Automatic annotation (TrEMBL):
Domain of life: Bacteria
Descriptive protein name: DsbA family oxidoreductase
Domain DSBA-like thioredoxin: 3-204
Cited InterPro entries: DSBA-like_thioredoxin_dom, Thioredoxin-like_sf
Signal peptide from the UniProt entry: none
Amino acid sequence: MKVEIYSDIACPWCYIGKRRFEQALDRFPGRADVEVVYRPYQLVPDAPAEATAHRAWLAERYGPQSVAMDARVTELGRAEGITYDFDAALHANTFLGHRLLHLAESEYGAAVQADLKERLLKAHFTDGADIGDRAQLTAVAVAAGLDADRVASYLAGEEGADEVRAQLAEARALGITAVPTFVFEGRWAVQGGQEADTFLQVLQQVAEETGTAPVAEPGAEACADGACAV
């Protein structure tokens, strides 16, 4: 089973959704046969290259309710083991980060890409890193196991940019307007950071629909949250 997760590095619900989906996957009997790939989506594609304070940007966009929005996400994230520090977070363009995730998947595989995705989310939401800065992105990538020289040369040029733009266009063609969106086998889509139990149910249903549901051994027991929108 292939699961493509459309998400943005700057989407707090994508972080929660990632954790909840992984909890479901850990409980899914057929998890060894599930391939998870992260696809790009940009909530603010015209965000400037130079980072600004997250709090200021969110207040300008949503007004007074922005404080309550951050507080709600912080509370829900805590339950998933996520520490949000919105006072330190920076609003930055995520295109370079998506290019980096494309490099990780194409040259290192889905597992390394998932690890890099986790590190980028933490860097952005917890550590106050500038995810639009090439040097900081390189440091995060190296921590995930990518080669420093390869990453530096890759980010210095335009390699992978056309591929990421094509994937962004594909997301629009699919009608995706909010993230995270989880696409199963290219046929079924689930939007939002759903509870782990919901994701588990979807995994089981898709496995049954596609005939890939694991067969239990004899005697063994069978085994709306939010989203960020444009």
